[in-house]
Amino acid sequence: MAADRRLAGRTGDASAGLDVAKIRADFPLLSREVYGKPLVYLDNAASAQKPRAVLDAIQRAYAENYSNVHRGLHFLANASTDAYEGARKTAARFLNAASESEIIFTKNATEGINLVAQSFGSQRIGEGDEIVLTIMEHHSNIVPWHYHRERSGAVLKWVPVTEEGEFRIENFEAALSPRTKMVAITHMSNVLGTVVPVKEVVRIAHERGIPVLIDGSQGAVHLPVEVQDTGCDFYVFTGHKVYGPSGIGVLYGKREHLEKMPPYQGGGEMIDTVSEDDVTYGAPPYRFEAGTPPIAQAAGLGAALDYINDIGKDAIAAHETRLRDYAMERLGALNSVEIFGRASNKGAIVSFALKGAHAHDVATILDRSGVAVRAGTHCAEPLLARYGQTSTCRASFAVYNTTDEVDALVEALIKVQSFLA
Ligand SMILES: Cc1ncc(COP(=O)(O)O)c(C=O)c1O
After folding, report:
1. Among 264, 255, 281, 227, which Cα is nearest to 110's?
2. Tally of CB atoms within 10 A around 376
3. Is 50 exceeded by the pLDDT of residue 7?
4. What is residue 384's predicted lDDT score, i.e. its pLDDT?
5. What is the 141 CA–ligand 1 centroid distance (Å)?
6. Which of 253, 361, 370, 391 has the most CB atoms around its CB within 10 Å?
7. Mean pLDDT across the stretch 358-372?
8. CB 317, CB 225: distance < 8 Å
């Protein structure tokens, strides 16, 4: 125990210039207890908690500025439209997109990928053409392509990972062929934490004229994202994992693609003209935002991205890296724990199994100690199958987590071991 405390001191939480206690105070939910114990929230890869700035922005959107957007000429319609379009500008800056017209608001990352698979994919990918994915994709970046495959007769090709969870660029290159028409790849695995060298991936794919979609659902919150520098064709992320609200996601698409892509859904606000006999479609991004968009969610998302920028992505990443290293060290010291994912470039996600125990039992017992982790397939069944697993536990870290919380996880796991022994 004394050793544990020394370790906690060594990896202190005030490092990287972050005042974690102050950051925690920004998140009202973190002060609650569960089962009479302080909450230790380590399920951030599933969804992150929200700072007061986000809650206030959503409250203001409804209490002060609420109206539908783009449709009215009155004061509130303009105020609401300005706020919505302001969030689009914030998202464009967050990704370093060339223009806010390259930013489409969707309901989540999943919808962004479906949009690309159906609209862009239907134009480009036909029978016998190949779509290259990695084995560590989330189902959200698998099933839309399966859907396409079922309809078009295209073929899915899979880039493997090593036992350690490394993505090897030579394996990626080997998966490409003259029939490859699309690469859809995660920025960071939601199970292994493996970070994919996306700039290199895009360079290699583009040399062969292959477009690349990056699933940034995990990457956008933990890693720097510069879509112009990366050169990717599409980048998606989801509001609720970047400390923003659920119900909104972002799809970045290069203007040259968006202009040529057919609509994904039809409805209000995405048209140019409609008559009894004809319809013409609006310009991007509106062509892809049929119906009333997520108005208050956009205000919340803008506030969340500002919140991240105010703290600084580098400082957040440095803090999360320390938490990851500490968690790997402490969990790795438990003989009965098997860790999945030891890639050299790895984000703040640690998946593990306790030998002889089912992940659901482990997570349920941890929960009674106030420790929230995820257990299951993490919507990555092909990856779990690669490791011969049907479920694992996953601890995933955010800017507000502390080394004390890692200690709480380890201590609770030691209790689980004795309980199940
Ligand atoms: C890597 C990855 N991709 C996609 C998603 C899907 O996000 P959403 O359900 O918000 O669309 C997730 C969510 O867990 C994820 O981790």
Report:
1. 264
2. 17
3. no
4. 97
5. 8
6. 253
7. 96
8. no
Helices (DSSP H) in 96-152: which residue ranges?
A: 109-115, 121-124, 143-152
> Is the beta carbon of 137 within 6 A of some atom in ligand 1?
no
Instruction: Tell me the angle at which helices 313-332 and 2-10 cross, rounded to the nearest 10 degrees.
Output: 160
Q: Which atom of ligand 1 is closest in space to residue 246's alpha carbon?
A: 10
400: pLDDT strictly greater than 70: yes
Ligand 1, pocket-test mutation among 47, 190, 248, 396, most atoms within 8 A of CB: 190
What's the CA gap between 354 and 415, in Å, rounded?
12
Closest C-alpha to 413, from 365, 372, 374: 365
Sign of CA dihedral 249, 250, 253, 255: positive
DSSP three-state, residue 39: coil
Q: How far is the CA of 109 from the centre of ligand 1 (A)?
A: 6
> 135, 215, 120, 226: which is closest to 172 by C-alpha?
135
pLDDT of residue 4: 35
Mean pLDDT of all residues in 202-229: 97
d(CA 60, CA 44): 26
Per-residue pLDDT at 337? 96
Q: Please choose from 44, 142, 190, 217 the residue to mutate so as to test ligand 1's pocket, defined by most ligand atoms within 8 A of CB.
A: 217
Pocket test for ligand 1, best of 135, 138, 394 (most atoms within 8 A of CB): 138
Using the mean position of ligand 1's atoms as its centre, give its distance from the Cα of residue 9 in Å: 34
pTM beyond 0.90, yes or no: yes
What is the DSSP annotation of 94-105?
A: HHT-S-GGGEEE
pLDDT tens-digit map of 227-270: 999 999 999 999 999 999 999 999 999 999 999 999 999 999 89
Q: Convert the pLDDT of each residue in 311-344 to its tens digit.
A: 999 999 999 999 999 999 999 999 999 999 999 9
- Assess whether 232 carries a catalytic annotation: no
Distance CA 24, CA 106 (A): 29
What pLDDT digit, counting tens, does each position of 134-184 carry?
999 999 999 999 999 999 999 999 999 999 999 999 999 999 999 999 999
3-state secondary structure of 411: helix
Q: Decide whether any atom of ligand 1 lies within 6 Å of the 118 Cβ.
A: no
Nearest Cα residue to atom 7 of ligand 1: 109
Whole-number pLDDT of residue 16: 61
Is 217 close to ligand 1, i.e. is its CB under 6 Å away? yes
Q: How far is CA 159 from the centre of its chain?
A: 20
Task: Find out whether 52 and 58 touch, Cβ atoms under 8 Å.
Answer: no
